[in-house]
Design the sequence.
C-alpha cells in the first residue's frame, strides 16, 4: 500500500523521547506566529505552482540573481560570542547578516535566508530548518554552532529542546552532523567535525575539474573517496539511513548546486576554486591553504541560481538517487564495529520488515522515502497539537510540507528495527 509521507504528525510520530515539561508552557509572540503562517502559505503556494507548471528553467538575469554583500549585508567576521558551526552555508549567512550574526536564529529566518541568498527551495530549507530546530534547538530557534552561553534562544520561553538542553548543530552528531562529510573530519577521528579539515579540502581541490568546475562529476567520486577513507580510518564510522542517504548526500550536492556562480556563459552554474574557497572560508593556494574560523564569505559579484529555479526537495530527491547510482557500493546502511575496515552492513530488508530491500531502494523515490521515514519511526514526537501555539505554529510549516512530501508516494513503513543499529559503537542514537 502506498501512503503519503506526512512531515507533521506522521513524520515525527513515535514518541520515543520524553517532552521536557517546560515545553508545555512554550509560547511565541503573535509576530512570530504571523511570520510562520506567512511562510507556510508561501511554501504551499510554490508547491502548487510547481505542480501546475513543473520545473522551469530560467535564463540568466544578472539583476535578480545578484546577491547583496554591502551595507547591512557586508561581511563581518564573527565576534568572540558569535557562534559558527559545521555548515558553511549557514556560517556564510550569519557572516553577512542574512541570519543573526550571533549564529542563533529562528527556523523561519534560516529558511527564508537560505532561499533568498542561495536559491535553496523553501520546502527543502524549511525541512532542514525545522529538523534542526527539533534535533538541536528549542524547536522554533536553533544555534548554527555550539550551545549558546546564556541559555537559549528566544523562540520558546524554555531553554530546553525536545532532546534536553539544546546543544546547537555542532553537537548534533548522527542526527544531523554526520561522518564522511566533504570538508569536515569525522567526530571520532579528530574530535572536531566542525572546523574545515585542510587535508580534505586539498583532496577536493586536487580532483580533476568537470565541465562546470567542481560540479557533480567531481563531487560523486570525491564522495566515494571520502566514504572509503572513513571506513579505512574511523573505527566508529557510522552511516545511518537518514544521515547517509539524506544528509551526507545533501552536503556534496549543495556544494555544487548552491555555491556555484551563475552567469550568461554558465547558466547552469560554474564552481571555480576562488568561489569555493570564499564560501568555505579558505585562503591561500593549493599546498598552503589556510582556514580560519568565521571567514566564510559570499564572493563579490557572485550570482545565485535563477529566481524560480530553486533547488528544492524534488530536485534533491532526483539527484540523491543519481548520486547513489554513480556510487552503488555506497547504498548501504551500517558502520565499522570498533576498528577501521570493519564495515558491516545492516540488511535494509531486516531494518524495514521487508518494505524496502537493496534492490527496491533504487526504485522510484524509495531512497528518500526510507531516509525520511527513519525520522518518522525513530524521531521525537513534536506535533501532538496539544503543546501550545509554538508547536502549533511549527505544525503549520510541516503541514505545508506534507503535500510536497506526499508527491514522493512512499510505501508504508510498518516496522523499523532501530535495535539493529546498536551493533555500531559510533551510532549512538543516530538516525
Ligand atoms: C536550511 C538550513 C540548513 C541547515 C539546518 C544545515 C545544516 C547543516 C549541517 C548540520 C551540516 C553538517 C553535515 C555534516 O556533518 O556532514 C551541513 C553541512 C553543509 N551544508 Fe548546510 N544547512 C542548511 C542550509 C545550507 C545552505 C543554505 C547551504 C548552502 C550552500 C548549505 C551547505 C552545506 C554544505 C556545503 C555542507 C557540507 C560541509 C562540508 O564540506 O563538510 N547548507 N549543513
Sequence:
Amino acid at each position: 500500500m502506498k501512503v503519503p509521507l506526512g512531515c507533521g504528525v506522521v513524520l515525527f510520530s513515535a514518541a520515543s523521547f520524553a517532552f521536557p515539561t517546560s515545553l508545555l508552557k512554550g509560547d511565541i509572540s503573535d509576530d512570530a506566529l504571523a511570520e510562520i503562517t506567512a511562510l507556510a502559505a508561501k511554501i504551499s503556494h510554490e508547491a502548487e505552482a510547481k505542480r501546475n507548471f513543473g520545473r522551469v528553467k530560467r535564463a540568466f538575469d544578472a539583476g535578480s540573481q545578484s546577491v547583496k554583500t554591502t551595507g547591512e549585508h557586508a561581511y563581518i567576521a564573527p565576534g568572540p560570542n558569535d557562534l559558527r558551526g559545521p555548515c558553511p552555508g549557514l556560517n556564510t549567512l550569519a557572516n553577512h547578516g542574512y541570519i543573526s550574526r550571533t549564529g542563533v536564529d529562528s527556523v523561519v529566518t534560516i529558511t527564508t535566508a537560505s532561499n533568498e541568498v542561495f536559491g535553496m527551495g523553501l520546502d527543502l530549507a524549511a525541512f532542514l530548518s525545522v529538523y534542526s530546530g527539533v534535533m538541536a534547538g528549542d524547536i522554533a530557534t536553533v544555534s548554527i554552532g555550539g550551545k549558546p552561553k546564556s541559555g537559549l534562544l528566544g523562540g520558546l520561553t524554555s531553554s530546553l529542546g525536545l532532546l534536553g538542553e539544546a546543544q546547537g548543530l555542532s553537537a548534533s552528531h548522527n542526527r544531523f552532523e554526520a561522518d564522511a562529510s566533504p570538508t569536515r573530519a569525522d567526530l571520532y577521528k579528530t574530535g572536531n567535525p566542525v572546523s574545515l579539515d585542510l587535508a580534505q579540502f586539498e583532496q577536493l581541490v586536487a580532483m580533476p575539474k568537470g565541465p562546470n568546475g567542481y560540479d557533480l562529476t567531481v563531487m560523486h567520486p570525491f564522495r566515494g573517496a571520502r566514504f572509503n577513507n572513513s571506513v579505512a580510518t574511523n573505527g566508529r564510522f557510522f552511516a545511518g539511513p537518514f544521515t547517509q542517504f539524506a544528509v551526507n548526500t545533501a552536503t556534496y550536492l549543495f556544494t555544487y548546486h548552491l555555491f556555484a556562480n551563475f552567469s550568461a556563459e554558465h547558466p547552469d552554474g560554474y564552481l571555480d576554486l576562488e568561489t569555493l574557497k570564499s564560501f568555505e572560508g579558505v585562503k591561500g593556494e593549493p599546498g598552503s591553504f589556510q582556514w580560519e574560523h568565521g571567514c566564510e564569505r559570499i564572493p563579490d559579484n557572485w550570482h545565485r541560481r535563477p529566481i524560480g529555479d530553486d533547488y528544492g526537495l524534488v530536485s534533491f530527491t532526483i539527484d540523491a538517487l543519481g548520486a547513489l547510482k554513480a556510487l552503488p557500493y555506497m547504498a548501504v546502511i551500517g558502520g565499522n564495529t570498533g576498528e577501521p575496515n570493519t564495515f558491516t552492513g545492516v540488511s535494509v530488508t531486516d531494518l524495514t520488515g521487508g518494505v524496502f530491500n537493496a534492490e527496491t531502494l533504487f526504485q522510484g523515490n524509495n531512497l528518500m522515502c526510507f531516509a525520511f521515514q527513519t525520522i518518522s519511526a525513530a524521531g521525537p514526537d513534536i506535533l501532538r497539537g496539544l503543546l501550545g501555539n509554538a508547536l502549533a505554529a511549527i505544525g503549520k510549516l510541516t503541514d505545508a510540507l506534507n503535500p510536497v512530501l506526499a508527491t514522493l508516494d512512499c510505501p508504508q513503513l510498518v516496522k523499523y528495527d532501530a535495535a539493529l543499529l546498536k551493533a555500531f559503537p559510533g551510532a549512538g542514537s543516530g538516525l
Observations:
- The longest strand covers residues 104-106.
